[in-house]
């Protein structure tokens, strides 16, 4: 691992913990049992990367190679049960950690696809799947229409961050600079989107029937 | 690609556009944002083939090899937003394009499984997954019980078309004739099923509890 | 196949039939058509092993190698329609068969991961996915929050059975003894859990909002 990748991975661990903890709260809203909580934490934190790897045929999956990640994320989800009464006080901390996760996972996902020699579009898409799909899986398991498709800019942040990262690498910018630049941009973009409630326009179609 | 396959693929592109556009309308009914619309379009149009390839271990996936397909289907879904007011006038056009897609994707799916040397049952099943699974994924993401399991003959059309195609090839009928015959049969079958509301019998079980 | 594995596989077939039949009842509660019934039967009975294989990159999938399994499970689901009026009388039989399936699939799943040389944590997790994921897929297709996450000890039984099996093998206990011991323990544990309604504690979190 290059130094920049080590730092990314390290931040990625914090983000995984944060995603597992917010998933645990979603599980609690559905009155799931402790096993469901741990499981939803693992799926949410690790599902994006797993889906990317299954789509690209990139084996073994990260958590299969490093099973400790299951204990880390499942454990974080279970810990949330004990902390449930105070967790909401750290609302902003979670938002920031989640934003870090979005951006960091995006770049890690881009790296995986680049290392496999995929075309640039696929590199950006792989980043987006890594950053966003965990939350989609969480919402499917909670039988909710994925939040991703209906709330503040999230996937778009991932898309733009990935595109910036790919462009920087493509034009031969120093790697560390590209990483720092993309992370800083993506993080700022996401936090501003939350702060000012930037949303994608919605498509509302009322006509009934299959078409 | 053989000539018959080229023609199939060409019709398949139209069908992908049609599936992405009807998925966009489903997204609009769930008030998704523009990103969700594009995403649901891609998943619906490309999800069947992707699931087939993941189940068979057939890498790389089509859209990974041809990322333009993501732009085509995502773009078609977005275009639907602009056309939403008039789209319902083309209701029958969409039904026909969707029927073409069902049949064409089925045969493309059979071809993939045959080229991997799978037994005939799996060839037919691969065709069915390719033809039908995109719509199932769309319904899961919209948190609806898949329409496929509850409406006019759809999967059955795919099943019969695939079986016909497999049988024709198995008995050494001229390839072009098998393709044309299966497509014509499947298309007619599906359009008649819509016209006359042919449905599979339903299984209704009212008793509560886990069993 | 070793003798112990043959016996396991044989019991596994009964369990697949039982899982397909209970899935058929779930399909009937959603008023699915016959195709949906057959399909939900296949997915529930074979989905756990398929998901495990896709996550581990273990190809070909079992039902791709043995397509007869599709006919067996799909057929069992369809047969349930004819038997719907009397099926509930065999409620306890189904519970026992399902418990056998849980335990047997868990051990089969552990074997697959062991044969690929995965670390012990992954072996146990692979067993759990094999034993439990079919029911999760069934619930997702029925748009219900997975029962697994909310009811009597089920995944926990799988977890403990797998851990016991892995530990026995790890410490060099005679293979047949490990298989019999794990199956007997798991089965007893699950049946006691049903009998005495042992449940995991639930995590209930009422606070609204994304976090």
UniProtKB/TrEMBL annotation, chains A, B, C:
<feature type="transmembrane region" description="Helical">
    <location>
        <begin position="153"/>
        <end position="170"/>
    </location>
</feature>
<keyword id="KW-0472">Membrane</keyword>
<comment type="similarity">
    <text>Belongs to the UPF0126 family.</text>
</comment>
<keyword id="KW-1133">Transmembrane helix</keyword>
<feature type="transmembrane region" description="Helical">
    <location>
        <begin position="120"/>
        <end position="141"/>
    </location>
</feature>
<protein>
    <submittedName>
        <fullName>Trimeric intracellular cation channel family protein</fullName>
    </submittedName>
</protein>
<dbReference type="GO" id="GO:0005886">
    <property type="term" value="C:plasma membrane"/>
</dbReference>
<keyword id="KW-0812">Transmembrane</keyword>
<dbReference type="InterPro" id="IPR005115">
    <property type="entry name" value="Gly_transporter"/>
</dbReference>
<dbReference type="Pfam" id="PF03458">
    <property type="entry name" value="Gly_transporter"/>
</dbReference>
<feature type="transmembrane region" description="Helical">
    <location>
        <begin position="63"/>
        <end position="83"/>
    </location>
</feature>
<feature type="transmembrane region" description="Helical">
    <location>
        <begin position="6"/>
        <end position="27"/>
    </location>
</feature>
<keyword id="KW-1003">Cell membrane</keyword>
<feature type="domain" description="Glycine transporter">
    <location>
        <begin position="96"/>
        <end position="167"/>
    </location>
</feature>
<feature type="domain" description="Glycine transporter">
    <location>
        <begin position="10"/>
        <end position="84"/>
    </location>
</feature>
<feature type="transmembrane region" description="Helical">
    <location>
        <begin position="34"/>
        <end position="51"/>
    </location>
</feature>
<feature type="transmembrane region" description="Helical">
    <location>
        <begin position="90"/>
        <end position="114"/>
    </location>
</feature>
<feature type="transmembrane region" description="Helical">
    <location>
        <begin position="176"/>
        <end position="193"/>
    </location>
</feature>
